[in-house]
Amino acid sequence: MAGQQTLDIEFRGVSKRYGDVTAVHPTDFAVPKGAFIALLGPSGCGKTTCLRMIGGFEQPSTGQVLIGGTDMAEVPPHRRPVNMVFQHYALFPHFDVSANVAYGLRQIRPRLTSSEIGRRTADALAMVQLAGFGARKVHELSGGQQQRVALARALVNRPSVLLLDEPLAALDKKLRTDMQIELQNLQRELGITFVLVTHDQEEALSMSDVVCVMNGGRIVQLGAPDEIYDRPADRFVAAFVGKTNFLDGTVLESTDGAARIRLANGMEISARQSGAVAAGAAAAVSLRPEALRLGAPAGETGLSGIIRNRIFLGSTAEYAIEVPLLGTLLATADHNAAQSDLLKPGDRVTISFNPGAPLAFPASDNKTSQRETSHVEVVS
Amino acid sequence: MSGAARKRLVTALLLAPAAVWLFLFLVLPFVAIVVFSLGERAPAGGYQPALTLAQYANLPARATAFWNTLLLAPAGALACLLIAYPVAYYLALKVLPQRRLLLVALIVIPFWTSLLIRTYAWMYILGGRGIPAWLEMIGLPELRLINTPGAVLLGIVYGYLPLMILPIYISLERLDRRLLEASADLGATPFSTFFGVTLRLSLPGMMTGFSLVLILLLGEYLIPTLLGGGKVFFIGNALVDLFLQSRNWPFGSAIAVALVAIAVALLLAANRITARLSGARQVDLL
C-alpha cells in the first residue's frame, strides 16, 4: 500500500444501509493521487452510493471516508475538496453558461475580484473548448455542450478529486467516444484524480487506469482494465465485462492455476482457473467470442456447429453458432472483404481456440454473495 | 372532409363552450361597463347614455377606497407570501413523503367551509366578547381589534394563505434536488444555496401565488365588510355602495374599469419582474 500522502481517497470499512436494505457492504479501498478509477457495475450495485459518500451527499452507516488523509465524517459537501459532474449535469437553468461556471468561484471566501473570476471562468471554458459560449443560456446548448459546461463548472475550483456520475450516459455514441478521449486527456493534463461511475463496461475499460467492478454492494474485482478483462475474478465479472460464452462441464482435475475439464459434449479441455474449482464439481468455462476461430469443417475432432445468425458490425462480424450439447456460442471474426460470403447462416464450421483462452469458474458462483467484506487495494 | 379541416373543426368544437362562456360573461359585461362608465347617472338612478369622461374625473372622490385597496391588498398578499414560503418549503423539502399528503390536506380542508362562516368566526374572536374581553379579564387595558386595518389584514392572511402555499409548494416540489447538491458541491453554504438557487427557482411559484391572491384581494368585499366595519372599506365595498345603494351606475362603472386597469398593470409588472429574475423561461400569468 502506498503512503498516506499519496492517497486521495480511502474507504475504511465503509458501508451504507437504508433501513433494511444494504446498499454498500463494508468496503475498504484506496485511490492513489492522480489515478483515473472507474466504479463499474450494474444499476443498484452501490457504485453511485460510493460516489455520493465521497461527495458528502450520503453519510456512511459505518466506517470512514478519507479524502487526502482527512476523515470527512463531519465535513459537509460544500467544504470538501472534491467536485462532481452530475448525471444529467444539473446545470443551473436560471444562469447563463458563464454564471454556471463561475458559481464555484463566487463561493470562495475571501471573495475573488471580479476580474479574477472572469479570467478563470474564461480559462475553464477554453479548456473544454467552449470559449465564446459564456453568454449562452444553458437550454440553448446541445447535450455535448452542456456536458462540457458541467465539466468546466466542476473543474474551475481546481478540486483534488473530480467525481463523475455517469457523465456520458446521455450522449450519442459518436459524441461519447470523443468525450472519452477528451476526458482522458484532461485528466492527464490536470493530474487530478478522476472517479468515474458508469454501468458501461466499454467506457470503464477504455478510459480508466483502474477499474473497480461492483456487484450487490461489494467490490468484486479491482485492477487494470486488461487484467479485469483477461483474468476476471469470478463468473459475474467475466459476464459483465465484455461478452463471453459459458460452456458447462465437469472438473476432472484441478491444479494450481489450471484445470482439466470435460465439457458437456464430452470434449476435454484445459482451462485457466483462479483457484475455486474443485475436482468433481460442475464448472462453467468462459470463452471470449474473439478467442474463437472459425474454420471449414474438418473431420469429427474438436468443436463444430452450424451458424444460425450473423450480425455484421463493420470491421467485425458476430456469429451465433449452434453447437450440439453446448448451446449457442458467440464468435467474433474480423471482417475480410474477400471472405465475407464464406460464412453464412446454415454453414457448418469448426471452432478452435488458443490453449490459454478458456477460463474456468465454479458453475454456481456464490463466492461474491458469501463474502462478508471485500478488501481490495490499489498499489500505485 | 380533409384531415386538416376535420382537425380544425374538432378543435373549434372543443373550444366553443369556453369561448361562448367568456364572450357572454366576460367580454359583453366588460363592454357594457366601459359604455356605462362614459355615460351619466339618470335622475332616478341607473344609466343614461352620454359620452363624457366626467365619471373618471370624479374618481378622486373615492380615493379612500382606492388607497385602502392598494395598500391592504398588496400588503395582505405580501404577508401571505412571507408566511406561506416557509410552510411550502417545509412541506416540499423537509417533510417525510408519507406525511406530506396529510399536511397538504390539512391546509386545504378549511376551504371546505365557507369563507363567510370562517370570517364570522374571526369577527367574534376579534370583537368585544373575544380577545379584548379575555385581555381585560387578566387586567390589561382595553384593546380595539375589530374594524381596524389590522383586523382586515389578519382576515386576508387567514383566508388566502392556502392559495399562496399551494403554488409555492408545487414549484419547490418540482425543484431538481440535484441542483441543490450541485450548489453545495461547488462550495455554496446552505444559506447561499437557498438565496442563489432555491429562492430564484421558486420565483415563478411565488409570483403565481402572489398574483392570484392580489387579484382576488383587489376585488375583495367580504373581509373588509365583516372585519373592517364601515371604517376600512375596499373598492369592492365602494362598488356595492354605488351600484346598489346610490344607484350611480356610470360612476361605479368608471371605478370598475379603473380597478381592471390597475389589476392588469400590476400583473404585467409582476410578470416582467419574474421573467427578469428567474432568467431562463418566460412565465405567463395572463
UniProtKB/TrEMBL annotation, chain A:
Family matches, as Pfam families: ABC_tran, TOBE_2
Record InterPro entries: AAA+_ATPase, ABC_SmlMolc_Importer, ABC_transporter-like_ATP-bd, ABC_transporter-like_CS, Mo/tungstate-bd_C_term_dom, P-loop_NTPase, PotA-like, Transp-assoc_OB_typ2
Keywords associated with the record: ATP-binding, Cell membrane, Membrane, Nucleotide-binding, Translocase, Transport
Entry EC no(s): 7.6.2.11
GO CC terms of this entry: ATP-binding cassette (ABC) transporter complex
Catalytic activity annotation: ATP + H2O + polyamine-[polyamine-binding protein]Side 1 = ADP + phosphate + polyamineSide 2 + [polyamine-binding protein]Side 1
GO BP term, example: putrescine transport
Region annotation Disordered: where it falls in the sequence: 361-380
GO molecular-function terms, A-Z: ABC-type polyamine transporter activity; ATP binding; ATP hydrolysis activity
Domain ABC transporter: 9-241
Ranges of compositional bias, category Basic and acidic residues: 368-380
Entry similarity comment: Belongs to the ABC transporter superfamily. Spermidine/putrescine importer (TC 3.A.1.11.1) family.
Function: Part of the ABC transporter complex PotABCD involved in spermidine/putrescine import. Responsible for energy coupling to the transport system.
Subunit structure of this chain's protein: The complex is composed of two ATP-binding proteins (PotA), two transmembrane proteins (PotB and PotC) and a solute-binding protein (PotD).
Protein name: Spermidine/putrescine import ATP-binding protein PotA
Annotated organism of origin: Ancylobacter aquaticus
From TrEMBL, chain B:
Protein topology in the membrane: Multi-pass membrane protein
Domain of life: Bacteria
The UniProt record lists the keyword Protease: no
GO biological process: transmembrane transport
Residues passing through the membrane, by range: 12-38, 65-89, 101-125, 145-170, 209-229, 249-270
PROSITE patterns registered for this protein in UniProt: ABC_TM1
InterPro entries with a match to the protein in the record: MetI-like, MetI-like_sf
Tagged with keyword Transmembrane: yes
Cell location: Cell membrane
CDD domains in the record: TM_PBP2
Keywords carried by this UniProt record: Cell membrane, Membrane, Transmembrane, Transmembrane helix, Transport
Boundaries of every ABC transmembrane type-1 domain copy: 66-270
Pfam families for this protein: BPD_transp_1
GO cellular component terms given for this protein: plasma membrane
Family stated for the protein in its record: Belongs to the binding-protein-dependent transport system permease family. CysTW subfamily.
UniProt cross-references to PANTHER family, sorted A to Z: INNER MEMBRANE ABC TRANSPORTER PERMEASE PROTEIN YDCU-RELATED, INNER MEMBRANE ABC TRANSPORTER PERMEASE PROTEIN YDCU-RELATED-RELATED
Protein name as it appears in the record: Spermidine/putrescine transport system permease protein
Annotated source species: Ancylobacter aquaticus
